[in-house]
Amino acid sequence: MIAETIRISDFTALLFSSASVARDGFYQREIRICLDVLQEKASSKVWLLPIRLDECQVPAEIADIQYVDFFPYWDAGMERLLRAIAEQTEIKHEVEKQLTDIILETTDEQPEDADLHKQVIRLLEQAGAHQTRLGSGSHQIWEIHTKLANGFVSRRFVVPRVTSVVAANQIMRQVGLETIF
């Protein structure tokens, strides 16, 4: 289960500290899984985020990969980490948006249905929703993060082909947005 979670994640952070680098067992196995998955990723993709938390020796197989150093300057390390995540997330969202536009343009829907579906997709994107898995129908998974008083809540949902105002409003309610249709 851990291996599959690592494999499908958008990012994986490996935290290194004096205590963690000396551990045997699961921690070392997870490092190996991460390195194996990294071989499957595009070289331009930021996916593995090695982070050194204190004055420790980063394992040799990770030392060859550029890592974020939070020690001794935590703020500088955090800024660098957030910048890398933001850049990769922006690239992913742009690719997803382009693919969504292509998929929507090639459907056999009636023009008014296509326009309604596109309008729902645009409203979801404007609200901060993004696709986490491309596909069609139930294979297309979306996610939205909603800010609450005590933090954030993430919702994953499917956007079926929108063919009516009723269906559009149902999707908007499902993700916690106002119905406007």
Structural features, described:
The structure is a single chain. This protein folds into two domains: about 1-85; about 110-180, no CATH class. Helices cover about 50% and strands about 20% of the residues. The protein contains seven helices and six strands; from the N terminus they run αβααβαβααβββα. The strands form two sheets. A three-stranded parallel β-sheet has the order 1-2-3, sandwiched between helices. α1 runs parallel beside α3 (about 25-40). The protein is elongated, with a radius of gyration of 20 Å. The mean pLDDT is about 80.
Distance between the termini: 41 Å
Low-confidence stretches: none
Strand content: 15-25%
Order of strands, main sheet, comes to 1-2-3
Order of helices and strands: HEHHEHEHHEEEH
Specify the structural class: alpha/beta
**Number of individual domains:** 2
The dominant shape is elongated
- How many extended strands? 6
Helix content: 40-55%
Count of separate DSSP helical elements = 7
What Rg, in angstroms, do the CA atoms define? 20 Å
Largest sheet: 3 strands, parallel
What is the average per-residue confidence, as pLDDT, rounded to a whole number?
81
